[in-house]
Structures are given as structure tokens and as C-alpha cells.
Specification:
With 582 residues, the protein is mostly helical. 77% of the residues lie in helices and 0% in strands. It starts with a helix and ends with a helix.
């Protein structure tokens, strides 16, 4: 009863009221805004060099793990590393499988931080350099050059992320300064499976509340030194802390896309699987740890007959650090071979919503060329099919944009089209870069012709995306001016849009084909588009004369159907370029 009264008294002493709750919410908001700004800016500044560097650093599982260890050792926070990984995935710079390797490395990297603190007694605080970073980035925000402005936003987003993370840690209930709140746990100081599970849960909750696995570890050490818990229960808390530390990345993923959410879930699943394995092997692992520590010449936290209990207590900090390191290294060594399985699990657990789609990124082309130019060209063709299908999704968004009545849904749809257009430019550049690499190898005459045809095809596919974006902005201009098309006009544009949808279907079929293209079918649809554009143009001039609609709405109408006709030209150009090599 007395322990419960102590808990209540300490909670009252902490004075955690409405202001503190709002401070906590504000800290979370700053953290999430920093994550969002950093992720969106990354998409704008991510050139080929950044993509190539990240791709080469994570091209296989081992390199990904080493990258995670390096980044975490530099920023001295596994939470910060996983949040950055989430933002990279959100920006399309890392794939889900690449991110899993880096996250595994971050778990090992956090133990490096613990050893640095143990031996050198200091820790770099990224939040201390955040304000100077904002000072450096501020002039870039006012630059007229778009790339410089994007770099400024990226640096400020990075700084705000760390400031928010620091505020988040400081605004949670101050359990760190009140370890006596946990004194009641000494009543459960018996290493049974039930108490081990309970202390693992306490370790998870503490880490979520404090938002720092390092601080939770420090609390665990205080409890060990005070003799409140045994070493076995301290290791159970360490296992729980490994689960709790995944929450930060999942918080960051709240404002991210499906791929980023999957990366955060992968972190959680990886740590949970590791903890379950550690629980199964809990007693044998204690014996192995005892053997390792005694072999190294250190005092064991498990006192035997005639050994000092006080000396065993003093040995607990170093023993916990060894256990933490051993757990994370073995967990990575075992689960690194199951990254594909973990990826499948998180994809299953985090399906795409009805209004959500995968981001534009290369699906088939990886780093480097394949064994022969012909094999590389086959992969390039598969990527073009993927590119065409994604552009088709963009066109589908355009068709739905007409029907969006609610402002929120409309803004979301328009924003998605604009985002896809930027990403589409990047995809064209990446495929073209790959084709350039292939062209530098020894090629047959036919392979040279295929490369030339592919260059023309991807250029025209990108132009289709440009036309989608242009039409979307014509529609937006109409909406912002609060203009309405007459009923007949909407119907005519819908018919024109249907012709374009058919043309895109045939275009994708022709790109996919290993044999000849359906040129006559594509040409027939193109003629229908041209003929219908001519009909609309004639009707438009008559309607203007008869004042069926005013000149302003007529200009927008003319711009839209004319752009549709241009899109039809780009689509037939894709088929014509491929016709010569199939």
C-alpha cells in the first residue's frame, strides 16, 4: 500500500498538468513536421548522385547493415537513424528491403553508442547543432533558385526533426529523475517466466514514455545498483527497451506513405522476432553470458558460492552492455537472411488503401549492368512497361479530378498528380542513364537501334505525364476562378478522355509485346482523337459566336481538348518508335 502511495505522491510532485500535456503534443507536432519537411525536400533535391550513393551503400544486406551501424554511430541515436531511413523510403531513395538492412545495422549501432558513453563519458547531441543549421539554411530559403531553396528546406527539416525529438524526450513525465517511483518492483524480484515477461513489458513502456532507450537503460542500471531487481530481470527490461525504441519511427511514419509505414513496421517486427527468440533461449543465454564474462576476466553478475554479492552488483552495468551488444549482433546475424520474408509480412500487414498508390520508382533496374547488353535491354523494356503503367495511373487520377467535389479530396488528387509528374521526370532520367551505360558496351547493330527506339519511347511517355499535369492545372484554373463547364462540354471532354484511355492501354500493350506492335490499332485510335479534336474545335468556335459560354471558360475548354490531342500524339509516337525494332 505504501509503495502505491509513493507512486501517487511522485506523480503529483512532477506537476504534470494540462500545460505539460500540450507541450508534449506540440513537441510531437514539431517532430512530425520536421520529418514531413525533410522527406518532401529530399524528393526535390534527390539527384542521381544521392540515389546512386544510397543504392551502392545498400546494394546488398551486409552493406545495408554496415551503413546502419555507421550512421547510428555518427548521430548516436538509433531512433534518429530509423526516422531518417523512413524519410528516405518516403522520398523513394531506398526500397523496403534496403531499409530493413539499414535498420538492422542501426540496432547494432546503438550498442556502439552505449560503449562510447561507457568508456569516454560523452554523447553528441544533434539538437545542439540544429539551431546553427537553421541559421545556415535560412538564406537558402530566400533564394530564387529552386534547388537552393529545396536544400534550405531539407536542412531545416533535418534540424526541426532533431529539435522535436529532443523536446519530445524532455516533455514526457520525468521518470528519469524519479526512479524511486519504480521501487515497488523489488516486490517482484523473482526471475520466473511471468516476472520476466512483466519486466520486459515495463522496459517497453518506459522506453515509449521516456522516448530514449539510453535513458531507459540508465534507469535499469539504477534499479540494479539499488538492488531492486536481479540481473535476469534487468536483461528482460533491456529486451523490452528494444521493442519500445521502435515507436519513434512508427510515429514518424504517421505522416508518410505506405512504403515508409512498412519500413517502420519492419523495424518493429525485426525487434519483436529477436525478443521472442531471446525469450526462448533466455536461460541458455544467461549461461553463455556468464561463461563469456568469466573468460574475459570480469566479475560475473551471477555470484557463486563464496563470491561477493556487492561485486556482482557492480559488474551488472558492463554485463548488461555485453548482453545488449550480443543480443543485437546475433539477432541481425540470424534475421538478415529473412529480410525478404519480413518485407512480405509488412506488405501484408500494411496494404495500400483505396486512395493510395505506390510511389514512382524503378522496379526492375538495379545498380550496374547485367551479363549481356541484350539482358540489360530486356530489363530496360520491363522498366518501360512499369513506367507506362504508372503514367496510366496518373492519367486515371486526372480523370477522377473532374469529379472531385470536396476541397480536401480535390487538393489531395491534384497534389498527387504534381508529385507524380516530378517523379516521372526522375524516372525518365534514370532509365535514360541506364540505357547510356548499356550503349557504352559492345553492341550489335540491332541493339543500337533498340536503344535509340527506347530513348524516344521514354521521352514520349514522360511527355504524356507532362500533358496530364498541364490539363490538371487547366482544371485547377477553372476551379479557382469558380467557373463551370456547361453540361454538354463536360460530356464531350469525357468522350475525349475515353479515347485517350484506350490509346494508353494500346501503348502499354505495345511496349509489353515481345513480337510486333499493334500499329494499326494504335493509329486508328489516334485518328479518332484527331477527328474528334477537329469536331470540338469547330463546335467551340460556333459556341463562342452564339455565346453558349463566355470567352474565359471557352479558353480553358480549348486548352484542355487541345492538350488531349497533343497527348494522343505522344502516345502514338511511343508505338512508332517501337515499331521499327519489333
Amino acid at each position: 500500500m505504501r509503495s502505491r502511495n509513493n507512486i501517487v505522491e511522485n506523480i503529483i510532485t512532477m506537476n504534470y498538468g494540462l500545460l505539460e500535456v500540450m507541450t508534449l503534443i506540440g513537441s510531437l507536432g514539431l517532430f512530425l513536421y520536421g520529418m514531413k519537411l525533410m522527406s518532401e525536400s529530399l524528393q526535390k533535391v534527390a539527384g542521381n548522385k544521392m540515389r546512386d550513393i544510397l543504392a551502392s551503400m545498400t546494394s546488398n544486406r551486409i552493406k545495408g547493415v554496415l551503413t546502419g551501424i555507421l550512421i547510428t554511430s555518427l548521430v548516436q541515436s538509433s531512433s534518429a537513424t530509423t526516422v531518417m531511413v523512413v524519410s528516405f523510403v518516403n522520398a523513394g531513395l531506398l526500397t523496403l528491403q534496403q531499409s530493413i538492412g539499414v535498420i538492422m545495422g542501426a540496432n547494432i549501432g546503438t550498442t556502439v553508442t552505449a560503449w562510447i558513453i561507457s568508456f569516454l563519458g560523452f554523447k553528441v547531441s544533434m539538437s545542439t547543432i540544429s539551431l546553427p543549421l537553421i541559421g545556415i539554411a535560412l538564406p537558402l530559403l530566400f533564394s530564387s533558385k529552386r534547388s537552393r531553396k529545396s536544400w534550405g528546406e531539407l536542412i531545416i527539416g533535418f534540424a526541426l526533426l532533431f529539435i522535436g525529438l529532443d523536446f519530445l524526450k524532455d516533455s514526457v513525465p520525468d521518470i528519469k529523475s524519479n526512479p524511486q517511483m519504480l521501487e515497488f518492483l523489488k516486490d517482484f524480484n523473482h526471475p520466473t517466466m511471468g516476472s520476466i515477461m512483466m519486466f520486459m513489458f515495463i522496459g517497453t513502456v518506459l522506453t515509449i514514455l521516456i522516448q530514449s532507450s539510453s535513458a531507459a537503460m540508465a534507469l535499469t542500471l539504477v534499479m540494479c545498483n539499488e538492488g531492486w531487481i536481479s540481473f535476469e530481470l534487468a536483461t528482460a527490461m533491456v529486451l523490452g527497451q528494444n521493442i519500445g525504441t521502435t515507436i519513434t519511427a512508427n510515429l514518424a511514419a504517421m505522416v508518410a506513405n505506405a512504403s515508409a509505414k512498412r519500413a517502420a513496421r519492419a523495424h518493429l517486427i525485426f525487434n519483436v522476432l529477436g525478443v521472442l527468440l531471446a525469450l526462448v533461449l533466455f536461460n541458455p543465454s544467461m549461461d553463455v553470458l556468464d561463461y563469456i564474462i568469466r573468460t574475459l576476466g570480469h566479475t560475473s553478475p551471477f555470484p557463486q558460492a563464496g563470491e561477493s554479492v556487492e561485486a556482482a552488483q557492480h559488474a551488472m552495468p558492463i554485463a548488461l552492455s555485453i548482453y545488449h551488444t550480443m543480443f543485437n549482433i546475433l539477432n541481425t546475424v540470424i534475421l538478415i537472411w529473412f529480410t525478404k520474408l519480413i518485407a512480405k509480412i509488412v506488405i501484408k500487414l500494411t496494404p495500400l488503401k483505396d486512395n493510395e498508390e505506390e510511389e514512382f520508382h524503378l522496379k526492375h533496374i538495379k545498380t550496374g549492368l547485367l551479363s549481356t547488353p541484350e539482358a540489360s535491354l530486356y530489363v530496360a523494356k520491363q522498366e518501360m512497361v512499369h513506367y507506362g503503367e504508372l503514367t496510366q495511373k496518373m492519367f486515371n487520377h486526372l480523370q477522377k479530378l473532374y469529379k472531385e467535389d470536396k476541397d480536401k479530396g480535390y487538393s489531395k488528387r491534384l497534389s498527387k498528380i504534381e508529385k507524380y509528374e516530378d517523379s516521372c521526370d526522375t524516372m525518365e532520367l534514370e532509365i535514360a542513364t541506364f540505357l547510356t551505360k548499356v550503349s557504352e558496351t559492345k553492341l550489335t547493330q540491332r541493339s543500337s537501334e533498340v536503344i535509340s527506339a527506347y530513348y524516344k519511347a521514354i521521352d514520349n511517355i514522360e511527355s504524356v505525364a507532362d500533358s496530364c499535369n498541364t490539363i490538371a492545372h487547366h482544371i485547377d484554373r477553372k476551379r479557382s476562378l469558380k467557373l463551370e463547364f456547361p453540361e454538354g462540354v463536360e460530356k464531350k471532354l469525357h468522350i475525349m478522355s475515353g479515347y485517350l484511355a484506350d490509346a494508353i492501354n494500346v501503348m502499354i500493350k505495345n511496349i509489353s509485346s515481345d513480337d510486333s506492335v499493334s500499329y494499326e490499332e494504335a493509329l486508328s485510335i489516334e485518328r479518332e482523337i484527331d477527328n474528334y479534336r477537329n469536331i470540338l474545335k469547330s463546335d467551340h468556335l460556333i459556341n463562342l459566336e452564339n455565346k453558349v459560354y463566355d470567352y474565359q471558360i471557352g479558353i480553358i475548354y480549348n486548352d484542355i481538348f487541345s492538350e488531349y490531342e497533343k497527348m494522343g500524339d505522344y502516345i502514338i509516337n511511343v508505338t512508332q518508335s517501337l515499331k521499327a525494332v519489333k
